[in-house]
Structures are given as structure tokens and as C-alpha cells.
Amino acid sequence: MNKQILKLFSSSICLYIISSLFMSVEVNGFYELLSFGLVLTILGLLLRPLLLLITLPLNLLTVGLFSVVNNTILIMLTDKIIKGVKIPSFWLSLLLAVFISWTYRILKQAFPKYATN
What we know:
Elements: H1 2-21, E1 26-27, H2 30-46, H3 48-54, H4 56-61, H5 67-81, E2 85-86, H6 90-110, H7 112-115
Antiparallel strand pairs: 1-2
Helix pairs in contact: 1-2, 1-6, 2-5, 5-6
């Protein structure tokens, strides 16, 4: 459970930073930030294993780098679900996916007792 809270926090804070850096990324408010993080975490728990299974040959071919594209697909799907968030392009979603994964790794190292479980 604590691991999912770190994922929720990292995805919400990264979306806020990306929306501050790029004017084309729109977030209507704090509620939308939190709901984006929550929906992305839930979709990651439910759909990510299926996406990884479907794209297993590409993942093996690219030595795991294609999993970033899987995360990008989940971000784009979350963008379609949450009405107050607008990420206009695949490339910004890809940048957000990479930024979320880096932030999550940093948070895991900063708070190791919350990353277990």
C-alpha cells in the first residue's frame, strides 16, 4: 500500500512540474492532480501487467526500453479519463512517463521503509 502512495505522489508532483514547464499541458486544479495520480496508479495496477504481456516480444527486443512506451500509453489513457487534465502529444506523455519513473526511483531511495510492501 505504501508503494502505491509513493507512485501516486510522484505522478501527481511530476504532472504539476510538467504543467508548469510546458504551457500546452493543462491541469485545472489540485483535485485533478490527485485524481490523475490515483487513476494512473489504479490503471498501472490493473492494465500494466496485461500491456507488458502483450508487448513482451518488443520488450525483449529492446531490453526493456519499450516499457516506457507502455507507461506512456497508460498516461495517455489516464489523460482521456480525467477531464481536467490535457496532455496534447505523445512526446509530452513520454517525457512525463520518464520523469515519473525517475522521481519514483528517487523517492524509493529517499524513503526506503515506504517502498517496501
